[in-house]
């Protein structure tokens, strides 16, 4: 009876996910789920967690609102997983409170800048197969990167072969602006589209004029063929 009473007295919010270890670090709740073969983020993480380690698992995606209920979360380690996709609202609800976010050593090619828009955390993004383009450049302009890991953000793919395999910071320092290339491409596409529409209008006008001329000539010929009235 005392045992069941004790169970009832334990708040559900302090339960620990299976295969994880819940402990305290510097007087704050820490949940350690490292190397547990997890394929997704556990659903039953205690709401009062401050330090959350999910590194060295097999997580492939961070869905929207994945950590929204963790209002005290300050440090999040998602390194050494298989993350390929990060939803736009992945860090909604915790963005303002996070101090560090480790996404290094995953399979990330790009991150929606909306996912990091309100994020104040220091980011670790090294050792991912980044596609160096305007979206990545814009995202890095708004992010707070860990200085120790900046040099390890390397272009795995890029619009030009000469950038592949080089640190992104080195490419940008050389004066490359992926967004200006994107803008020029967009401008060329718009110019081609406008030229196409203009050509269609000109062709239509020419055909219309020719058709009217032919009708007028036929009408004149018809009038000439009529007998002259006295």
Automatic annotation (TrEMBL):
Pfam families: LRR_1 (PF00560), LRR_8 (PF13855), LRRNT (PF01462). Keywords: Leucine-rich repeat, Membrane, Repeat, Signal, Transmembrane, Transmembrane helix. Residues 1-22 form the signal peptide. It is a single-pass membrane protein. It is found in: Membrane. Residues 15-51 form the LRRNT domain. Gene3D superfamilies: Ribonuclease Inhibitor. The chain crosses the membrane at residues 188-209. InterPro entries: Leu-rich_rpt, Leu-rich_rpt_typical-subtyp, LRR_dom_sf, LRR_TM_domain-containing, LRRNT. One of its GO terms (cellular component) is plasma membrane. Belongs to the LRRC3 family. PANTHER family: ANTIGEN BSP, PUTATIVE-RELATED, LEUCINE-RICH REPEAT-CONTAINING PROTEIN 3. This is Leucine-rich repeat-containing protein 3. It comes from Podiceps cristatus.
């Amino acid at each position: 009876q005392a045992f069941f009473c004790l169970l009832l007295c334990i708040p559900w919010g302090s339960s620990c996910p299976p295969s994880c270890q819940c402990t305290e670090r510097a007087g704050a709740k820490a949940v350690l789920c490292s190397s547990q073969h997890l394929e997704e983020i556990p659903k039953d993480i205690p709401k009062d967690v401050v330090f959350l380690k999910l590194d060295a698992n097999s997580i492939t995606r961070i869905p929207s609102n994945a950590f929204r209920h963790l209002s005290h979360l300050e440090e999040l380690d998602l390194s050494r997983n298989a993350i390929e996709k990060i939803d736009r609202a992945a860090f909604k609800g915790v963005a303002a409170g996070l101090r560090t976010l480790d996404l290094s050593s995953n399979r990330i090619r790009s991150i929606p800048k909306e996912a990091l828009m309100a994020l104040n955390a220091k980011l670790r993004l090294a050792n991912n197969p980044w596609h160096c383009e305007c979206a990545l450049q814009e995202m890095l302009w708004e992010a707070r990167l860990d200085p120790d890991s900046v040099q390890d953000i390397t272009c795995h793919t890029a619009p030009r072969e000469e950038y592949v395999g080089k640190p992104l910071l080195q490419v940008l320092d050389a004066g490359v602006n992926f967004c200006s290339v994107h803008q020029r491409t967009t401008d060329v596409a718009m110019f081609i589209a406008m030229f196409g529409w203009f050509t269609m209008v000109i062709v239509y006008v020419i055909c219309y004029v020719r058709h009217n001329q032919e009708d007028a000539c036929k009408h004149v010929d018809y009038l000439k063929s009529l007998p002259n009235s006295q």
